[in-house]
Known about the structure:
Helices cover 51% and strands 16% of the residues.
Amino acid sequence: MKLSIVATLYQSALYIEEFCYRASAAAQKVVGEDFEIILVNDGSPDNSLDVAVNLADNDSHVKVVDLSRNFGHHKAMMAGLDQSIGEKIFLIDSDLEEEPEWLISFFEQMSTQKSDVVYGVQQERKGNWFERWSGSAYYTILNWLAHVHHPRNMVTARLMTRRYVDALLIHKEREIVISFLWIITGYKQCSQVVKKHMSSNSSYNLSRKLSHLINSVTSFSAAPLMMIFYSGVVIFCLSILYAIFLVAQHFILARPVDGWTSIMVSIWVLGSMIISFIGVIGIYLSKVFSEIKQRPNVIVRDIYEKSKR
């Protein structure tokens, strides 16, 4: 098969039919009828599964992978890629904020530049000023702490070769941050500027963005642990200097040292730092705990496709 189009479903019932129609039309322009559309139902609470299964009943190109519950967007995407068999794989969100027609220009760029990946980037991040500012801050902090350079404003939509996807699926960690996996898998990757639409409210609120930032940094960088070590060294050196200053003040200048205020400030500062440092170490330990349990990333409840009915 020449092409697989992979998309996840979560509260997507309103968009599925139009998405499949437009994705099919774009696929026919680049590979004819030799394509498949894989829709992964990530435990959607609406009737997305029913709509998708109805499409699969009437279109042999459509294949529906129904997960046993909601496992999360990143794991659902990996499950869809694992089910794909195409020589080229087009990964895209199904909510129509990303246009299925991008496949055509992505395909042309991949052929021209002989790359393994063509991915979309937004020229300007969508949303209000706070979303744009927080997004810029997110990438700045991420690229500062992580050892992987993460492109700014990267979207889900991307066209990939079979060998790249096979290499991507080698990664078996349980704490998946798929955008970083896309990068560290390597191969030649090229970007294309796209304009993402706003068809729905984002489910990524501030707390989820902070959680994603922490997960990204602690999954791909040991920088926070190194910062703890260097903070300890700096505090030790400062405490030695301050101790020397107090001794000199007492014996040389014969001045009494105020004790209660300095002691309380030191206790509060050092106590809060110790608690935060333990918390950072705890995050890393929780990731180790999650990995060693070797639980499956997803569980597939059923697969629906016309050819097997």
